[in-house]
Amino acid sequence: MLDNSDAFIALPGGIGTLEEIFQIAFWAQLNIHHKPIGLLNVDGFFNKLLSFLDQAREENFILHSSRQIFISASTAKEMIDKLEDFVYEPNHVAAQIDWSKGISSKSRKLDLSLHL
User: Fold this and answer.
1) What is the β-pairing status of strands 70-73 and 37-40?
2) Are 69 and 28 within 8 A, CB to CB?
3) Engineered SS bond to 46: which of 1, 41, 91, 116, CB 3.0-4.6 Å?
4) Alpha helices, DSSP H only, in 4-116?
5) Is residue 108 pLDDT above 60, yes or no?
6) Model confidence band, residue 105 (pLDDT cutoffs 50, 70, 90)
7) Rounded to an integer, what is the distance from CA 60 to the centroid of its chain?
8) Is residue 61 helix, strand or coil?
9) Is the dihedral of CA 22, 59, 75, 30 positive or negative?
10) Residue 73 near residue 9 (C-beta atoms within 8 A)
């Protein structure tokens, strides 16, 4: 899904929807992708979530780049227009991480032996 999409759009939903939204947001924070997350804000469903994100940004709990990937619109047409206009502003700290190489299992070994 990640490689085959240009953006992500969430419709109003429950805990599973929120988990998916924040997983994709976290991947953006880790510089795994630079794609916007659209919240189709039907009848203001996501208003409190957006207020929470704004407050977290204002109080420096999240970076500007982490907040700006969330796009809100009340109609599908407005959403498409906003997603087409989206320009990613990189997080310069995470931008130094190259996730395309993965983590080699040979580079880290766990010691699972029991020492009494």
Assistant:
1) parallel
2) yes
3) 41
4) 15-29, 47-58, 64-68, 76-85
5) no
6) very low
7) 17
8) coil
9) negative
10) no
Can you give the pLDDT at residue 45?
Answer: 97
Alpha carbon distance 17, 56 (integer Å):
20
In 3D space, the residue among 101, 99, 104, 80 whose CA is nearest the CA of residue 34 turns out to be: 99
Please list, residue by residue across 44-83, b when 16 or more beta carbons sit within 10 angstroms of its beta carbon and e when fewer do: ebbeebeeebeeeeeeeebbebbebbbbbbeeeeebeeeb
pLDDT tens digits, one per residue of 45-104: 999 999 999 999 999 999 888 899 999 999 999 999 999 999 988 766 655 556 566 554
Mean pLDDT over residues 102-108, rounded?
Answer: 52
DSSP state of 44: G
Give CA–CA dist 100/86, Å, rounded.
23
The pLDDT, as a whole number, for residue 100 is 64
More confident residue, 67 or 114: 67
Q: SS3 for 100?
A: helix
User: Would you say 49 and 41 are in contact if contact means Cβ atoms under 8 Å apart?
Assistant: no
DSSP, res 37: E
Q: Cβ(55)–Cβ(87) under 8 Å?
A: no
